[in-house]
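Lay summary. Proteins are chains of building blocks that fold into shapes, and those shapes determine what they do. In this project we predict the shape from the chain. Here is one chain we studied, written as its sequence of building blocks.
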Amino acid sequence: MPGVTIGVAKGNAVTEGYDLERFVTAQAGVYPAALAELRAGEKRSHWMWFVFPQIAGLGRSAMAAAYAIGSIEEARAYLAHPVLGPRYLECVEALLMHRGRSAEAIMGTVDAMKLRSSLTLFAAAGGGALVEDALGTFFGGADAATLERLG
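And here is the predicted shape, written in a compact code that computers can read:
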């Protein structure tokens, strides 16, 4: 059912109370293609907002606003979601297949900036070693604007 979230506990994070189904719905038709593009090392289509979401306040477009993550707690819930969390890590793993290339070469300049923001958010939310590895590998550190919004 659209708009209904199911509470799934994982550690201290709970998906209940956040409209995470908006991401599941958005990914439904494009996730396999997005993952294939990442594995190939060349992003070609438009899925960045809902596969690698950013903290609210960074993006200016309607899509950025619709898929913005409102808080660190919502980011933790995203990671705890039984579909979204594993997909996020699978996409990060696909990126790491291309350690010898820049994020800009894989994603394009604008989406590379969004990727840095997303990785920063999810590293802060407890995304683990894989997310931290990607952040260090492709960017050498966190996105200052994201950290500022997280407080």
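What the prediction tells us: The chain has ten helices and two strands.
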